[in-house]
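About this split. The held-out portion is used to measure sequence recovery: a designer receives only the structure tokens and must propose an amino acid at every position. Recovery is the fraction of positions where the proposal matches the reference. Here is one held-out target exactly as it appears in the evaluation file.
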């Protein structure tokens, strides 16, 4: 379809993206919603085909098989927007914007594990994609806050930089930007999950340099030119939490606003992370109410070591999710040749259904599985994989055996090699 994205990604863009070009406001009424796309994806999986197959010569036959899910002419119209897609891709590429789809090997596995079918089909972004796999601390809060709250957010951002951790936030004015700016000004890393206007933010004067240096990534779940929408903002909140190992709410208005709604949703529905709130006499009433709903008082770490301990302790109490770059390795590139010393483990599932008291071996294997699937985006022999991981061949084969059983890895013949399964990460298309 185009020379930049895979046919799978192109097909998902055609089905779900408005493809806003210039000043035109392309209607989103006919594009597939998240729930509609998930329904289509489930049916495609049942038929053992991929979205890319919808672009081929058998399109009409395949659309007929999907007729009970989505009206064929509607699908045909969406898939026929190749000219719009080419112009949109050209526009995005000129601004350094990339797109990854749920089927792509570099799609963050944490989102699939935590959000499952709520994981966005597409992520638009600018900056180093590896920042999305580092884990770290989500910091969120209201837009309109006092100077004390802003100073607090900035100090937390600076501390994460000292601890070689990443700040995840919504990129909005107020607490979100205060925490991100604190981290970036201290030489650290940040990921902003924007609800609007990604294209405009990538050229902002305070974003260009950290993006170029690989310390800032800006992403969005909606078209890079899309304006603000409350539904998009709420979906964004889920993603901010899902990326991080723990979350800190600096300020929340009681029973109103996106910060409150997002926090309540995490506490009552997802429960995959430790949710902390700032306490003290100056903390708003919403923070105190969140404590009653199960949030934890922020322990106010004063050093990098104390902050790392908070996140490690938080992770140990939560259901295991794939941590694509373990906490203590996040200041190293994934391809680092540093020796990885991990004990043998028994085959276990790597999804988020593990209980909070899962044994250490199970939690370690969840991390190992994500790293191996990342490495096996390109097929490797067992010996090549052992060399990359810098572990024994016997250990590598034990891990591969477990991953094959879980259908997270596929075995190829002639010659024998291994690759990440296209249905790994909850099997989402």
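Reference sequence for scoring:
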């Amino acid at each position: 379809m185009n020379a930049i994205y895979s046919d799978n990604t192109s097909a998902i863009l055609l089905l779900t993206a408005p493809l806003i070009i210039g000043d035109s406001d392309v209607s989103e009424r006919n594009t597939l919603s998240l729930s509609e796309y998930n329904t289509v994806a489930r049916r495609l999986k049942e038929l053992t085909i991929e979205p890319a197959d919808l672009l081929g010569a058998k399109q009409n036959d395949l659309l007929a098989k999907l007729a009970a899910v989505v009206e064929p002419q509607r699908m045909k119209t969406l898939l026929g927007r190749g000219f719009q897609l080419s112009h949109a891709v050209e526009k995005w590429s000129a601004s350094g914007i990339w797109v990854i789809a749920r089927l792509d090997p570099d799609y963050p596995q944490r989102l699939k594990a935590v959000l499952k079918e709520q994981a966005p089909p597409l992520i638009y972004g600018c900056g180093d994609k590896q920042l999305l796999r580092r884990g770290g601390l989500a910091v969120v809060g209201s837009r309109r806050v006092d100077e004390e709250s802003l100073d607090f957010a900035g100090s937390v951002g600076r501390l994460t930089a000292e601890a070689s951790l990443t700040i995840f936030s919504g990129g909005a004015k107020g607490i979100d930007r205060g925490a991100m700016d604190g981290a970036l000004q201290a030489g650290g890393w940040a990921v902003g999950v924007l609800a609007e206007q990604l294209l405009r933010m990538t050229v902002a004067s305070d974003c260009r340099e950290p993006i170029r240096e690989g310390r800032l990534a800006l992403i969005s779940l909606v078209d890079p030119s899309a304006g603000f929408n409350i539904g998009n903002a709420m979906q964004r909140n889920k993603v901010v939490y899902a990326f991080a190992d723990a979350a800190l709410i600096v300020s929340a208005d009681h029973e109103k606003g996106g910060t409150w709604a997002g926090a309540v949703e995490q506490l009552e529905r997802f429960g995959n992370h430790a949710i902390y709130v700032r306490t003290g006499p100056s903390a708003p009433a919403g923070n105190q109410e969140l404590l009653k709903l199960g949030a934890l008082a922020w322990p106010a770490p004063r050093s990098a070591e104390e902050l790392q301990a908070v996140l490690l302790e938080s992770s140990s109490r939560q259901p295991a999710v794939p941590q694509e770059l373990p906490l203590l390795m996040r200041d190293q590139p994934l391809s680092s040749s540093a020796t990885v010393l991990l004990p043998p483990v028994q085959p276990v599932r790597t999804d988020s259904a593990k209980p909070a008291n899962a044994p250490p071996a199970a939690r370690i294997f969840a991390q190992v599985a994500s790293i191996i699937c990342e490495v096996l985006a390109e097929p490797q022999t067992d010996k090549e994989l052992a060399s990359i991981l810098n572990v024994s061949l016997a250990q590598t084969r034990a891990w591969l055996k477990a991953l094959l059983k879980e259908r997270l890895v596929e075995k190829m013949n002639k010659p024998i090699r291994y690759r990440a399964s296209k249905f790994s990460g909850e099997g989402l298309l």
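Annotator remark: Residues 135 and 244 are 5 Å apart (CA to CA).
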